[in-house]
Every structure is written in structure tokens, then in C-alpha cells.
Input
Amino acid sequence: MSFLTGLPKAELHVHIEGTLEPEMMFDIGRRNGVELGYASPDEIRAAYEFNSLQDFLDIYYLGAAVLQHEQDFFDLAYGYFERAAADGVRRSEIFFDPQTHTDRGIPIGVVISGLAGAAERASSELDMSCDLILCFLRHLPANAAMETLESALDHRESFIGVGLDSSEVGFPPRLFTDVFARARSEGLRVVAHAGEEGPPEYVHQALDLLGAERIDHGVRSLEDPGLVERLVADQIPLTVCPLSNVKLAVVESMSDHPLATMIDAGLLVTINSDDPAYFGGYVGKNYEAVANALALDDSVMARLAKNSISASFLDDISKTSLLSEIDAYVAS
Ligand code: HPA
Ligand code: ZN
Output
């Protein structure tokens, strides 16, 4: 096993619907009688050419339509947890998009039971702990997000936090201020996508108006020196997704990725996969890609893994224990 694969790490930015591999999409689609319009998994894979976030989202929402039953959601999530465990992931906080499913008539309880069942099974059978973060689709109105939150609260014990995803530009965080206040009043943890395609101002809004404890992506924060200073001072984690950034043309190529600049600036950056079935690799591949393209040595990569543990929503005792495991791994 390579150094990077064996390195204990947390994955904090992965959309479970984005782990739906073409083979599973094809099989579940057939099982549920959903016509995808593709003759084989290879044909599905061949359609994965994106020039922007929206290009990707159009295909991603289409693929998710094969998911109908609790077992489908369980199989999807458990398959991801097994692949993550094989990549050295010891803590996984997965995003799910209930509205993608409830808008097709799938009850939210079906979605949450399937995913939470897989998280529970993985936490007991794999060498990792797992939790769920419910994301609101920001291209839909705030009142739809509020309704989603209210219905999800019937399953309050099954998820630990809320996030904000989907089409970013034109859908600023401030639109969701009330929903996030309601979530915080329930003791839910808060994250939000900002600064992927959207401007640094959206990162400020996510922090100031939503109470975000981590920023998902956040790469465009570099355009605002005052914002960088704030993120460094408060050690707000950024969940960076390198292969995603290249595939969605947020950066031109991996060697142009600003990750090294972000690390040098003192930002608390972490490495994640975003939608690995669509972007060419799980978290281990993302670690490898940046290490190779940016010539980051083992000590920098271990620092990134430690950041992922510190930035997680684990309790302090679990964090301390995983951080010392990383030290022991590096030393051996
Ligand atoms: N950005 C916004 N929404 C998303 C993404 C992303 O990278 N992946 C899945 N939904
Ligand atoms: Zn994302």
C-alpha cells in the first residue's frame, strides 16, 4: 500500500449521490425500471465531459433518478464507505441532497433510513466512523429548504449538520439565512459551498449570515486578501476538491491548482473527492494527484491529513487519537 493510501484521513466533502458509479447506476436503473437512455455503463461514462458546474449538475441529477428504495440508498452509501476505507479514510462526513429525491416523490424517510443504515453498518464493520450532513439545493427557493429541514427533523438523530450545494452563481448564501438559523437552533453543525464558482463575497455571507463552520471549496477566497486573513485568523477549514476543480474548469490544470499557495498562506485546507464517480477518483487519488502535480512531500501530505481530522466534527478525544495515529504512521 502506498504512503498516501495508508495515511489515516477524514473525508469531509463528498456528495453521496456523486459516488454513484455508472455500473451501479445501470444495475439499479434496470432493477427499478428507470430508462436512462444509455446502452451500457461505458456509454454513461463517455457522457462525462463537463465545462462548468452546471454541465455536471444536469447529468448528476439525471443519474440520481435511479435511486428509489431504501436498499438503493443503502447500497450506494455502503459501496462508498468500503471504497473510502480502502483509501485510508477513518472518518467520513457525507453530504446528501434530499430534495433531489423528494421532488421525484421519494419520501425523505426512505432516503435518510437507507443512508443512515449504511453509515451505522460502516461505523461498526469498517475501521471508520461516519455521519451525514443534509444539503439544501440552492437553486430551489428558501421555503423549499425550510420544508425539507422541518420534515428531516423527524429523523433528527440520523444527521449531524446541514450544508448548501448545487448551482452557486446567482444563489447567494444570504437567501438561506433563516433556514440555517433554524438548523443551528436544533444543534446542527453548519457548512456551506462557497467560492467554487461564486465570488469571495459568498464566503463572507456563508460565515456571517449562515454561521458556517467550514467552507466547501472556497478556492476563490484567494481573490480577497482580507478574507484570507480572516480565514487564517479563525482557522476556518476549507474542503478543497482538486480533481473536481480540474474537471469543472475551476482551475485550468492540476499544476495550476492554488493548493500550495493556500497552504503557504496558512489556510486550514483539506483534500476531498466531491463527486468521485464523476470526477475520476476517490480521496486517495486526489491526494496522489496534488502530491504529484505540485511536488508536495510526505510531510506536507501528512499535514493535510491532520488538517482533515482537525476540521472534522469528531469529538476532541477521537481527534487526538487519530492525530497521534498519523504521527505514528509517519514515523514508522
Ligand atoms: N458544487 C455544488 N454542488 C454540488 C457539487 C459541487 O461541487 N457537487 C454536487 N453538488
Ligand atoms: Zn461539493
